[in-house]
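Weekly structure sync, notes
Attendees: PL (lead), two postdocs, one rotation student
Agenda item 3: pending single-chain targets
PL asked that the sequence for the first pending target be pasted directly into the notes so everyone works from the same version. It is reproduced below exactly as submitted, 201 residues in total.
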Amino acid sequence: MAIEAGASALGLVGNMPSGPGIISDELIAEIAAFTPKNIDTFLLTSETSTDKIIEHYSKVKTTTIQIVDALTQGNHLDLKKAFPNVKIVQVLHVINKNSIAEALEISNFVDSILLDSGNPNLATKELGGTGRVHNWEISKKIVEKVKIPVFLAGGLNHTNAFKAIQQVKPYGLDLCSGVRTNGHLDAQKLTSFFTAINHNQ
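Predicted structure, written out during the meeting:
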């Protein structure tokens, strides 16, 4: 459904402490194998050690690893050594202006950054799928300063996606709750989203 609507990548959500769209590793592997080669598949992993991320990825074989929390053991270069042909995307939850310096530092070690609106400091970590917009002025500064692609996520839908593109100028947009109804992908919301961004370009 997402590919037919116009998606250039699929986010496949592994085990998470919160948020919608969680599916089994078996299903992630099945979708990744089925997906046409011109469509990227992102494993969303909440693992925070490189050993655990390597173990998680080995079960699913997507084109991309999206790390939704900060690494606590190992580093991004360990992952690049383990999987030289797999893209590494680090999620950065934009909380305040400190996120700019954090993005600049991370940008030296990954293929791209994804800016989201979660809060990893809560007792039950929010690592995506919040449906909330964060401060796009901070995101815009990050896009301007880093030299790698930056994806924008957080509260995006058909009503604000084009404004986000104009204001932030990200490499791409990442949507979750904005194209779902009752936890499932919604064909009408997908159509409305792509109509909104394509109509305005």
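Discussion points:
- The chain is about 35% helix and 20% strand.
- The CA atoms of residues 102 and 201 lie 31 Å apart.
Action: rotation student to compare against the earlier draft before next sync.
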